[in-house]
Amino acid sequence: MKSESIHSIEISSLSKTYKGRKGKAVEALSELSLTIQNGEICGFLGPNGAGKSTTIKILMGLITATSGTATLCGLPVTDPGARKRVGYLPENPSLFDYLTAREYLALCGRAFAMDGESILRESQRVLELLDLREAADRPVRGYSKGMVQRLGLARTLLHDPDVFILDEPMSGLDPVGRALVKDILKDLKSRGKTVFFSTHITADVEVVCDRVAVIVGGRLRSVDVVDELLESGIEGYDIQVKNCAPALYAGLTSSPKASDITEIYVPRDRFNEFLAHLGKNGGDIHLIEPKRKDLEAFFLDILGKG
Length: 306
Ligand SMILES: Nc1ncnc2c1ncn2[C@@H]1O[C@H](COP(=O)(O)OP(=O)(O)OP(=O)(O)O)[C@@H](O)[C@H]1O
Ligand SMILES: [Mg+2]
Description:
Elements: E1 9-19, E2 25-36, E3 41-45, H1 52-59, E4 67-72, E5 75-76, E6 86-89, H2 101-111, H3 116-129, H4 145-158, E7 163-167, H5 175-190, E8 194-199, H6 202-208, E9 211-216, E10 219-225, H7 226-232, E11 234-242, E12 253-258, E13 261-267, H8 271-281, E14 284-292, H9 295-305
Helix pairs in contact: 2-3, 2-4, 3-4
The protein binds adenosine-5'-triphosphate and magnesium ion.
């Protein structure tokens, strides 16, 4: 099989039932099927307890599915070799906190069979990337939550894997850290890497993801192309027009912005008619800003429909 035809992540009818307290069954995942293409960034959204971490733990071989199958780079997740080319960030990473970041990365590098020179070079690279250079020789036990999260992310990048599976990578990070992680994800995409990450932050999905999968109560509720979803949510446009006749915006909401500029809200279904009108009656477009539902509104809609 040619490598391009192998999907990075293929999840097929995955179900997981945990044994809860007093032996009570907890159905955490039910018949989940999802394919992540090579080179795409897919966000995994869902409310607390939806089954995101359960899915990710099955992919990483940390727990076994009750039924169904999953593959990483064409290999079944039950094969440890499937994770050689994967970078994994767990939810709330707990690292060996008596080690320094540099020692911890060296340990991880050896686990991925990297040679000594690569370990030194790549450790330095990822420590700098995640802004941990100054703390690199201090034991991890003295790190703040966000620093531990950054080290967890640094670890995923160390061996330059092809596939990244990240459970809430922005969790616990300050705005600068979140922006940094978004930049890292965009860079991974530009280098053809595949990223599957869970999050609660819809704004981050909006900025970095190609697709978004929503899971609710262990069941996949929707999978959408983010750009298409956002485009479908355009409700109208705020249009700033220079030197136009008042007749042009009769019946539309308008407000003066400057002596010669008026802002007019044009509903989506009247956009073409408005432009034709503008062409006929004169007036120059100064600015057009689409007014649309954001991903959070879609997410809430999806939850509401349940
Ligand atoms: N070890 C376990 N034993 C029993 N039930 C579990 C176990 N782990 C998870 N669950 C249950 O499985 C369901 C899914 O949990 P999971 O951790 O996958 O959700 P999540 O989507 O990652 O949530 P969050 O957004 O809060 O991280 C929940 O009902 C949870 O209580
Ligand atoms: Mg979770």
